[in-house]
Specification:
By secondary structure, the chain is mainly β. It contains 1 helix and 6 strands; from the N terminus they run αββββββ. A hairpin with a 7-residue loop joins strand 3 and strand 4. The mean pLDDT is 83.
Length: 110
């Protein structure tokens, strides 16, 4: 038996177009308890896991209240994070950033 790559799994289950969904996506609460801790050339993000979540989308902005964009870790893979914690190494030392995390649910639930 061949094991599917993370990218294949994402495309088959999570990354489908909404008009291809098998069922309605369950609405999950957003994560709580987001903490960002600066370290040596990185920021470690932690949050409370949400039961039923298949992953999380991390967003970043350069100003408080600024436009949030999905955090691109340049890994040539899906941008979703499977669970906390997450270590962001894409920033610049001394540059302030603002984060948000959203819960992802499985749209294939029937």
């Amino acid at each position: 038996m061949t094991q599917a790559s993370a990218r294949t799994d994402w495309e088959n289950r999570i990354g489908r177009r909404s008009d291809d969904a098998v069922g309605a996506a369950p609405r999950l609460d957003p994560p709580t308890g987001l903490v960002a801790e600066a370290g040596g050339h990185q920021v470690t993000l932690t949050w409370d896991a949400v039961p039923g979540a298949v992953g999380y989308q991390v967003y970043v902005a350069s100003t408080a209240g600024g436009h949030l964009e999905p955090l691109d870790h340049h890994g040539r893979d899906v941008l979703a994070v499977p669970h906390p914690p997450y270590v962001d190494t894409t920033g610049t030392v001394g540059e302030e950033r603002f984060y948000a995390v959203a819960t992802l649910s499985d749209v294939a639930v029937q």
